Amino acid sequence: MRRVKFAVLVKYAVFLLFATLSFLTLSCDDDSRQDNFTTCPVSTRAKVIIDADVVEVFDDGVALMMLASNPTIDVLGVTTVTGNEWSSSCVAHAIRQLEAIGKTSIPVVEGASRPLYPEKFFSLEEDWKSIGYVVDYMRALSNEEDSTWTEAYKRFYNTTPTMTTLNKSAEDFIIETVKNNPNEVTLFVIGPCTNIAKAVQKAPEIVPLIKNVVYMGGAFYCDGYDVPWAEFNWIADPDAAQICVNTAFKDQLIIGQDVSYKVTMDSAYYFNLIDVTSNAIIKQMLKDKYLFGLFSSGAVDKWCLWDVIAAACVIDPTLEQDVISRYITIDTEGAKRGHVNVYESKPSSDAQSVRILMNTDAERVRTMITDVFANL
């Protein structure tokens, strides 16, 4: 009799264990239940490397925090690159925001401080002037470059960081991480493509091991934002972008300027984010951001969400609602370098088919951002 009861109890315990595991797995797949858990079973979480020219909050910083705080995403590391700001400053911003949201276990690696051909980057302003374009703000080129990321951190935040960086190059980190997680890693590339280009050139054997690549870059059937002919991420290092889109990755999804013009926020939305977040550091970043002044003065009435759209698509692929497949090449020479040429048929033997997001559910994206800020 005792043996029968014991056997029944064992079966019942096994049933409860499997029921609990099944419930947790379903919870990770159902957005309506994500808030009930701080994390998901490791095997169900999407593995992502964030490669970015990180700024404070909008928009790279928000994309970083969205992915780092999402229970369905396993951020394997953050690699920085010069673009919006110098790579050393990007490290400081990334670390400060990870500290602010309690995600200090995520590795940060200081990546490329210069594009593949630095002279092209440093001559941008003069090249644009030569064809009649004067731009007041030249991203990193308009900012001070610190000698180290710790110097940048002290300058920005007047305190000492609690995190440090890994002592390796961004390309080596990417290569090692992909090899350690074959067919599982998404490369989330929301700055110039320099680090990714270096990685695939140094170790081409990783290409078939990469699950997919999601970019923010390029202007396809619209004007760019800074200048009419191109979008800045691919202006900053057009050669790296060309290498990447011509690489035979399994899948390449591009969130470009086209969809970014359609998914925006206004001043009321921005000010509401300040109200809903209780995170003191992030709240202050929102108040200190130049966007606060632009919205307060009425200088702008809306702002594109660029990298945040890309992060939303990584978290929820059902947001890939209007996607076209095309072949593209990127102009790497001349004053209008970074310009994207779009083809419906293959223009050369090495061209790869890429997917371009043309539209998505803007309200769902904005709701996702609000939910992140409300729970930081």
Overview of the molecule:
By secondary structure, this protein is an alpha/beta fold. It folds into two domains: 1-44; 46-374, Ribonucleoside hydrolase-like (Inosine-uridine Nucleoside N-ribohydrolase, Chain A, Alpha-Beta Complex), CATH 3.90.245.10. It is built from 16 helices and eleven strands. It has helices at 2-29, 60-69, 87-100, 118-122, 124-130, 149-157, 170-180, 194-202, 232-236, 238-245, 257-260, 267-276, 280-288, 290-297, 306-315, 362-374, and strands spanning 46-52, 73-80, 108-109, 185-189, 210-216, 252-255, 264-265, 303-304, 322-330, 340-343, 353-359. Strands 3-2-1-4-5-6-11-9-10 form a nine-stranded mixed β-sheet, sandwiched between helices. α2 (60-69) links the parallel β1 and β2 (73-80). α2 runs parallel beside α15 (306-315) and α8 (194-202) packs across α10. The chain is globular and about 55 Å long. Mean pLDDT is 91; it is low at 1-38.
Any key phrases for this structure?
376 residues; alpha/beta; Inosine-uridine Nucleoside N-ribohydrolase, Chain A; 2 domains; 9-stranded mixed sheet; 11 strands; disordered N terminus
